[in-house]
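Worked problem 6 (solution included).
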Amino acid sequence: MVNVVKRIQEYNAGRDPQRLQLKYKNIRNDPFTFLRGTCHLFYERLPYSGLMRSAPLTWICGDLHLENFGSYKGDNRLAYFDMNDFDEAVLAPASWELVRFLTSVLIAADGSTASAADTRLLCRSFIDAYSNALSLGKPRWIERDTASGMVGDLLNGLRGRLRSTYLDSRSLRKGKQRSLRVDGKKALPVTDKQRARVTKFMQKFASEQPNPAFYKVLDVARRIAGTGSLGVDRYVILVEGKGSPDGNYLLDLKQALPSSLTPYLKVAQPKWSSEAQRVVSLQRRCQAVSMAFLQPVKLGKTSYVLRGLQPSEDRVVLKQPRHSVAEIQQVMTVMGDIVAWAQLRSSGRQGSATADQLIAFGQSKKWKKQLLDAAHSCAAQVRKDWLAYCKAYDAGVFTP
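Solution. The predicted structure is:
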């Protein structure tokens, strides 16, 4: 029998205490946030049998849920909508990715006005879009000119965004100089030692780039972001960019930890040179266009992922009654397409199924009911685990 409290404490041991307390508080809020913050628990619960064993092997992001899709600027400076978190990425049966996403839909529906029939429709829309896109065998992508509905609105909304406005939301301006806004919500102060360490790293990194002056460090803060990764060593870095004050850039530097799926995998994985190399390699492999500045780096012996800071607001918010079922259904279709395209794009690489095998899987219908049944079972377990966590949290078990 799984001891929920013990597993959560063990998994989060050693994290930054201040941000870890934020995580513990957040996952107490509702089952959906709990699902996001306990990926390790989800896969420990997932039985390695039936469809969870027989589905084709694919490269998966590993932590797929409704809020792991969003817009971002690619390294070609164009905006895209895609999966955007690959911290847990591994080689696993395609069904693992699908069942976690569908579980997130079922759990999210608990806190909405969606009826059971509406939720079934949304799940089926995702599954059908995924299987249809897989059957076609041709990966595509979502950009401004090909997007419609809520995703189109999101990408079109980025068109008029000014860099200065975004910088103003994350920093304080004094004359021609900026410093990071340390508000306890998105950023926390660093120690002198942490600032010196990050600055020294960036100086070395800059010396190896075509334009070293771009990466001149103006300020550093500890970043507060995400749910599952809260407490992991992470910084937001304000750099000179194209010139102060409004040409500055924000970078995200995040420690890369082993995938929480690793203990439950029955499939041999490549031998990556570092965890950051795994994350970045698989993100590049699965996304149509990589995020700006994305690359694996090292601070001492610890690996980190460096990338451009992505605004957390750049996601489609699926909350009824603000949006109709038809609007949300369209987003489910887009998300189903994106998952299929990522798997096709990365097919036949280091042990993953070939495109022909994925096409055949997409054309098969026998797995769809099995997948939905598994998602309902997983959702029931998540709700049960959350209640056990709430009881322990309210009793002060997670208070330092």
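Discussion: The radius of gyration is 21 Å.
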